[in-house]
Amino acid sequence: MKAVVFDIGNVLVRWDAAQAFLPALGDRVAVLAFLDRIGFAALNLRGDAGETFAALADEITDPADRALFATYLSNYASTIPETIEGTWALIPRLRERGLQIHAITNWSAETWPIGLATHPRLATSFGVTVVSGQDRVLKPDPRIFALLCARAGLEPEDRLFIDDSLKNVEGARAFGMQAHHFVSPETLETDLVERGLL
Questions:
Q1: How far apart (Å, rounded) are the C-alpha atoms in residues 143 and 85?
Q2: Buried-most residue among 31, 71, 116, 155 (CB within 10 A)?
Q3: Nearest Cα to 172, choosing from 21, 4, 48, 30?
Q4: Interatomic CA distance for residues 165 and 102, integer angstroms
Q5: Nearest 5°: phi and psi at 103?
Q6: DSSP for 77-130?
């Protein structure tokens, strides 16, 4: 094992899209209803794949919903308010064991600069970072794992991949990587110790 590859959202940085719309709608129940009404999850995934939020907004037929969705970019920083420090604390310990640290994230090319500005460690903590919106390919597509292999000079079996999405974990395993389904920093630490990586 030569490298540990981290997902970022809800592994290293908490992400809650509802926070972007709370100021306008006032309570979480109303926000969740709005997100469901516009099919936010699917729209956001398309943003992560490289589409612009302006183009996605144009598809929303209700003018009020369209206008509200259009505020997502300007309010994006509020959706990633805090880091998951228990996970971050593992990174220097892994480096001390001689492991490379990389990242693969499903993240929009438009919001990624906001993520870097909000949490500067994201710009300096990884040898290679593959951002889906920049490369226009989403996890768990095997092409995104192949991109990291090529850029980091690694084979699939050289890497342990960590993600909070079971679908992405299964995709990594199908590609030939070892993978950990992230639930908490504590369970991750236990798994790393059991694998002999810590």
A1: 30
A2: 31
A3: 4
A4: 17
A5: -145, 145
A6: GGGS--B-HHHHTHHHHHHHTT-EEEEEE---TTTHHHHHHH-THHHHS-S-EE
40: which 2 tokens?
A: 């936010």
CA dihedral 174, 190, 118, 60 (to 10 degrees): 40
Q: Answer yes or no: are the C-beta atoms of 53 and 114 closer than 8 Å.
A: no
Taking a C-beta distance cutoff of 8 angstroms, is the pair 13, 119 a contact? yes
Q: How many CB atoms lie within 10 A of CB 122?
A: 22
54: buried, middle or exposed (CB in 10 Å: 19+, 13-18, 0-12)? Answer: exposed
Would you say 148 and 109 are in contact if contact means Cβ atoms under 8 Å apart? no
Q: Measure the CA–CA gap between 62 and 15, rounded to whole angstroms.
A: 26
What is the distance between the alpha carbons of residues 16 and 80, in angstroms, rounded to a whole number? 7
- Is the C-alpha dihedral spanning 144, 4, 1, 187 positive or negative? negative
Q: Which two tokens stand for residue 126?
A: 């990884």
